[in-house]
Task: inverse folding
């Protein structure tokens, strides 16, 4: 199962490092990362494979969200299928 | 990987534009719970519903977390209770009480199906059930009732129309201390559908499988936001944009329905392609119409704009879902829509315009608050007119009016939460009691020579 992690907010040092550290800690494999910075707004989307994840989906999502809050960022963790079904025929 | 823009668009829809799944409704057939002993029947109902719907709420919450999409309501619809009342002696209110117990046990917020289908006449149990509605709805808080009084194929049962005017008023009076909320839990239908997931009119039709999952989507805010980006577009472009937006919204409903059905081991029924508003700012159908260029919902042009919206939502949604059903279209409940409340309060939107709008929208006169001293015959007249629109146009129409006991035109009845607040609207009080008291049946309309 794959999930999308979307991080939105003001750019700051170490966003990618902190988010990917949590993924690594839970054994979630980062498969793809895209990031854009518009003026100083930061938007990163990350595709992670959570089939080998050592913690359950809810816990991982909570940890990522909490870590985002600490950096004043919004973090959304959503199953990949929702985007596939909404944006692809 | 999906593009960043698509991801951000979805997140924006959910976070800022109030996109959500309005309801996952599990339909449960109670035909195998029929018993001549009413207490035995209630026992079977409780056992079956608790067994089948045990994980309904939990599953909904899990899907919510996995996809990051809010699922506002988890609900159940059941076989019209009049069918169970037909063979059981005793007060049908016992059935309402057991449904209330199931609602509390499973954690669902409403159970629909305290219903009777009497479009061609009353069978055993129907009249008893209808007459027990005020008591059943005042004694329970999570049970909803509906009565189908007409259809395109059968005509309109005017005896039932007369009866329902009285029942609505009695239900409001019986719940006078609770914002007359009893009346908000009754829907009078013409051409009721068997797979509607939305309350208060949901029931599990007899043509349905034993259990089924139906999903109702929402998202007026998303449509409005899409239209706000195109201030100078012509109407064809507006229709195209609504279609595309409806497609995306419906795809989400289809995904959630499929997942819920898999997790619960219950067949997937339909996605109801509806724009269901809430009183929240930015979640209004009236505001979509205003975005198209009307000063206020209710101005001339409103019916045309609504017709366009309703049709485009269906066209976009149909391709996005493998099975479409329910009421499908734009809902226009007055008290549940911030734009409708404003329009009714400032005098832009009256009952006559609302009635015209119901000819082109998905349901009918919904959550309309009328003065408490309105006579039962006038309410019946309103029901008859609305049913006639549905009957002639081969569409579902419904009436959910709330007589605000002790209130006059211009005052406001507060419900709170998803039900919002309703300005007491002006109603034409000229007498129609002679017409209503005649009884009988309006014959089914001709299906050809359409003009």
Result:
């Amino acid at each position: 199962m794959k999930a999308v992690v979307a991080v939105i907010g003001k750019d700051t040092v170490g966003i990618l490092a902190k988010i990917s550290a949590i993924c690594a800690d839970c054994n979630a494999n980062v498969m793809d990362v895209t990031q854009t910075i518009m003026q100083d707004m930061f938007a990163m989307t990350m595709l992670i494979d959570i089939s080998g994840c050592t913690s359950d989906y809810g816990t991982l999502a909570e940890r990522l969200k909490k870590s985002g809050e600490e950096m004043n960022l919004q973090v959304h963790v959503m199953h990949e299928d929702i985007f596939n079904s909404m944006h692809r025929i | 990987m999906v593009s960043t823009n698509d991801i951000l668009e979805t997140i924006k829809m959910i976070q800022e534009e109030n996109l959500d799944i309005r309801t996952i409704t599990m339909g449960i057939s109670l035909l195998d719970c029929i018993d001549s002993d009413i207490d035995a029947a209630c026992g079977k109902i409780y056992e079956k519903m608790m067994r089948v719907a045990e994980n309904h709420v939990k599953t909904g919450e899990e899907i919510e977390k996995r996809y990051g999409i809010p699922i506002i309501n988890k609900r159940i619809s059941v076989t019209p209770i009049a069918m169970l009342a037909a063979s059981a002696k005793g007060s049908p209110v016992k059935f309402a009480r057991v449904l209330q117990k199931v609602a509390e046990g499973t954690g669902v917020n409403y159970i629909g199906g305290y219903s009777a289908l009497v479009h061609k006449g009353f069978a055993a149990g129907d009249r008893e059930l209808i007459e027990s509605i005020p008591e059943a709805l005042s004694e329970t808080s999570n049970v909803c009732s509906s009565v189908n009084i007409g259809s395109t194929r059968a005509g309109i049962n005017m005896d039932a129309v007369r009866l329902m005017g009285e029942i609505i008023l009695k239900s409001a009076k019986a719940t006078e201390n609770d914002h007359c909320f009893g009346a908000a839990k009754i829907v009078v239908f013409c051409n009721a559908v068997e797979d509607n997931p939305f309350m208060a009119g949901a029931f599990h039709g007899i043509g349905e499988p034993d259990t089924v999952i139906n999903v109702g989507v929402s998202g007026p805010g998303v449509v409005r936001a899409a239209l706000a980006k195109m201030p100078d577009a012509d109407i064809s472009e507006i229709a195209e944009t609504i279609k595309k937006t409806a497609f995306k919204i419906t795809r989400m409903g289809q995904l959630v329905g499929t997942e819920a059905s898999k997790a619960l081991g219950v067949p997937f029924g339909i996605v109801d392609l509806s724009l269901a508003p809430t009183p929240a700012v930015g979640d209004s159908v009236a505001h979509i119409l205003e975005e198209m260029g009307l000063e206020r919902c209710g101005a001339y042009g409103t019916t045309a704009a609504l017709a366009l919206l309703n049709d485009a939502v269906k066209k976009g949604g149909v391709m996005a879902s493998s099975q479409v059903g329910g009421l499908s279209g734009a809902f226009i409940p007055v008290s549940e829509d911030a734009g409708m409340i404003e329009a009714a309060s400032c005098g832009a939107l009256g009952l006559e315009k609302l009635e015209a709008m119901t000819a082109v929208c998905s349901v009918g006169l919904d959550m309309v608050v009328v003065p408490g001293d309105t006579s039962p015959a006038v309410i019946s007249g309103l029901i008859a007119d609305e049913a006639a629109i549905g009957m002639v146009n081969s569409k579902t129409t419904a009436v959910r009016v709330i007589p605000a006991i002790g209130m006059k035109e211009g005052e406001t009845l507060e419900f709170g939460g998803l039900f919002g607040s309703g300005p007491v609207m002006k109603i034409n009080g000229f007498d129609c009691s002679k017409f209503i008291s005649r009884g009988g049946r309006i014959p089914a309309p001709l299906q050809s020579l359409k003009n």
Remarks:
- The radius of gyration of chain A is 13 Å.
- The beta strands of chain A are 2-10, 29-38, 41-49, 73-79.
